[in-house]
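Lab notebook, bench 4. We co-purified these components, and the gel suggests they stay together. Before we commit to crystallization screens, I want a quick structural picture of the whole thing.
Request: model the full complex, all chains together.
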Amino acid sequence: MDKSYLSAENVSYAYPAREDEESFEVLHGVDLGIRKGEFVALLGHNGSGKSTLAKHFNALLLPAGGKVYVDGLDTMDESLKLEIRRRVGLVLQNPDNQLVASVVEEDVAFGPENLGVPPPEIRRRVDDALRAVGMYDYRLNAPYKLSGGQKQRVAIAGIIAMQPDCIVLDEPTAMLDPRGRTEVLDTIHSLNRGKGITIVLITHYMDEAVGADRVVVMDDGRILTQGTPREVFSQVRLLKAHQLDVPQATELVWRLRREGFDLPECALDTAECVAALEKLLPRPQKI
Amino acid sequence: MFVLETKDLTYVYGAGTPFHKTAVNRVSVGIERGEFLGIIGHTGSGKSTFIQTLNGLLRPTSGTVLLNGKDIWAEPKKIRSVRFRVGMVFQYPEHQLFEETVLKDICFGPGNMGLSAAQAEERARRAAKFVGLDDELLGKSPFELSGGQKRRAAIAGVIAMDPDVLVLDEPTAGLDPQGRDMLLEQISAYHRARGSTVILVSHSMEDIARFADRVLVMNEGRAVMLDKTKNVFARGRELEAMGLRVPQITSILLTLREKGYPVRPVLTVDEAVEELRPLLRKGGAHHAQ
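Here is the predicted assembly.
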């Protein structure tokens, strides 16, 4: 075992067979280590195995072959399940399926109550968690009256109140509008930077992956490629061959470079793309 | 004549109570027959309320909705027929599937219109083709379908009513990029084949950029822009101020334009390449800098 905080070693998984159907293998021997404090984005199509892999990191799914360790704890060991779930929280796509109470702060208190945390400590944790996601002012509101982005931040607060080392988020912004997406992403990044929480973000949005320390691309139950966002998105040809998108900024620079213009191999965002183009464009007339 | 037109359309939730909220505020717009109209606006801008007035699900607090020139509320008892002509696909429409088989579910709308079982089935099969549902799926229970297939079955149920106007509220929410592209291509093919009017409400500016002829922008209950898609996205900074976002590629060229480079606004990477190529050639001598 290396010093990875989350570690998947040769993991395979098959969804159990239903009547008259064969069981369906979705992970074929995946090796992946994630360091404490790292921000990892997991990309891939539906059916690529990315959600299945992520659910192994809090023992929601158990490997059919291979091993998964969380902070050195073997997820196959039933007696460690609570310890593992205390360390790794999971946030899902639809916030409406994750909020249970009729008042925001009660919802956030649900997790620590279940862990048997004493009431004064719960109070402190709930307040801290709501502040961390910028929802403290809404603590007495009813969750159903919140916007999608706000609900998702409350769901994240519910996880934070359990003081996990790591949060796995499975497409947390898929149902949100642009403002809600920004709110949730900013929250995730600040938890990563400010509290050192390890983040595993599953997303379809390339622009969300650009801000990660490392991008892991899954395809057909295997890791297709991984590296820094720049290393991964430089491989436009590979990604396109697997019908995966790259950010539009990356694609523009890549295509112009292929036409022979002297542009860098990779631009990750609007600013980099504009800067690269400005070096080549004739100086604009004064306006 | 517009297929749909609103005049001073206003809708107030909880009118006469302390909680009243004006969701749609004096909106006057005309929707052209056969166009593909995109509607954008951040959550709370009034766009969902607006579209629900278009088929009479909500009755305006004041102002009118004209369908083919006629006030849809002129005879309130006939409002049901408006709902057949302005077909509405809500968010997560698959939650509304309920019949034993996919085919029966798609037949439900046309059956309600008073068509015979045979006619309804013919329409249903045609609608299923439009959304790319294989024949073999039609005999299955809706609950055996994948998420994307369910979504398409629900949309087929509305298309089967053969509406003059098809309104879709976030039809691709929660689908992955491949599923999203496939569904929108199918809706676009339906639009071209039927020549019917399509209204697409979406948070995805990339989708709007690819498919919409014109875009209506709503903000705080008002219609603040209605113009060709390219012209609307050229006002990217105003959109950003409303909490909206333009496609990244549009933003890149807008930024260059603001810096004084002579580029026009674009909606796709293809257009951006075409726009930049001649300029880069001109600048070719300056590579060394």
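The beta strands of chain B are 4-13, 21-31, 36-40, 62-67, 70-71, 86-89, 165-169, 197-201, 214-219, 222-228. Worth comparing against the SEC data before the next meeting. Confidence is low (pLDDT under 50) at residues 285-289 of chain B.
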